[in-house]
């Protein structure tokens, strides 16, 4: 089979949650293969398909966990394990480590997945706050704001970081921060004061509104 055909089959099997043992084994063989024809993108499609299957056997969980250490596949495996309800500290640590990767798309994926984990502990929030304020890529910063919003975090340290992000140089970051505050309905005096300054000084109409 060509890579294109194999990917099409795996997408269909994942979408229909075809999680019988033979199907799981076949896809696990693909993601574990060292065959040069099994490119990393084919493996990503396989990992995604497994993550959609709902219930999987222990061998499949082992196969997915074996990919956590891969730089290209680790975040995809973590996402699949999270979807399968197999999130633990090892999966979480892969995501937190990936947030510091030098490659933008890896950081971006890791941050997005963190927002979907519903894990709202201080370790996760600390990383996300740092990304909001310091990441060099505006899309990664936007993803971090979205992740914090999804997690519903409104502790004092998070609110402080988000107030600082109201003056981010990127307008899309600022728009997402304003949306965060409107969603969280923060009413403390420091937040109200910061939003008032935005209303008076921000050059973007969407941010002011």
Describe this entry's structure for a reader:
- This protein has 209 residues and is an all-alpha fold.
- Helices cover 70% and strands 0% of the residues.
- It has 13 helices and no strands.
- The longest helix has 14 residues, at 138-151.
- The protein is elongated and about 60 Å long.
- The mean pLDDT is 94.
Fold blueprint:
Elements: H1 3-15, H2 21-32, H3 40-51, H4 58-65, H5 74-83, H6 89-98, H7 104-116, H8 122-134, H9 138-151, H10 156-165, H11 171-184, H12 189-201, H13 205-208
What's the helix count?
13
Percent helix range: 55-70%
Low-confidence parts, pLDDT < 50 over ≥5 residues? none
Largest sheet: none
Provide the gyration radius in Å. 20 Å
Give the overall form: elongated
Order of helices and strands: HHHHHHHHHHHHH
Task: Give the averaged pLDDT, no decimals.
Answer: 94
Q: How large a portion of the residues is in β-strands, by DSSP E? A: under 5%
Q: What would you call the structural class?
A: mainly alpha
